[in-house]
Amino acid sequence: QVQLVESGGGLVQAGGSLSLSCAAPVRTVSSRTMGWLRLAPGKVREFVAAISWNAANTYYAEFLKGRFTISRDNAKNTVYLQMNSLKPVDTAVYYCAATDTYRSDLYFAPNGYGTWGRGTQVTVSS
């Protein structure tokens, strides 16, 4: 079982930035599309961003409007999410996830991912 470990969450003021990391202790994630998803209070889990195994393709939720950037370093088995211009509505638990599918239409739905981390809390104050 692949274990994904998120880090980098915390409390930040609106307009600020945070950088999340997702590390996997084994090399299996290097061949898989990786995603970030989030769960806000009172809402359902939603897709944030995804990146293909070789970083050639990235996918973003439309509501982000270019504020977040996903990247990966396969040599370090790590995926990143740079979050800028944070808003209070971005407050959520952010999850890293891996998928075995190569169908890009499935990257936008939480049920497209089979392996999940435990999440890291991001809180944006107004």
How would you explain this protein's 3D organization?
The structure is a single chain. The chain is mainly beta. 0% of the residues lie in helices and 45% in strands. It contains no helices and eleven strands. Strands 2, 4, 5, 6, 9, 10 and 11 form a seven-stranded mixed sheet that branches. The chain starts with a strand and ends with a strand.
N/C terminus separation: 39 Å
Mean pLDDT: 93
Radius of gyration: 13 Å
How many DSSP E strands?
Answer: 11
- What percent of residues are in strands? over 45%
Secondary-structure-derived class: mainly beta
Helix content: under 10%
Summarize the biggest pleated sheet.
Answer: 7 strands, mixed
- Poorly predicted spans: none
Features:
single chain; 126 residues; mainly beta; seven-stranded mixed sheet; 11 strands
Short description:
With 126 residues, the protein is an all-beta fold. It has strands at residues 5-7, 10-13, 18-23, 33-39, 46-51, 58-60, 68-73, 78-83, 92-99, 115-116, 120-125.
Topology:
Layout: E1 5-7, E2 10-13, E3 18-23, E4 33-39, E5 46-51, E6 58-60, E7 68-73, E8 78-83, E9 92-99, E10 115-116, E11 120-125
Parallel strand pairs: 2-11
Antiparallel strand pairs: 1-3, 3-8, 4-5, 4-9, 5-6, 7-8, 9-10, 9-11
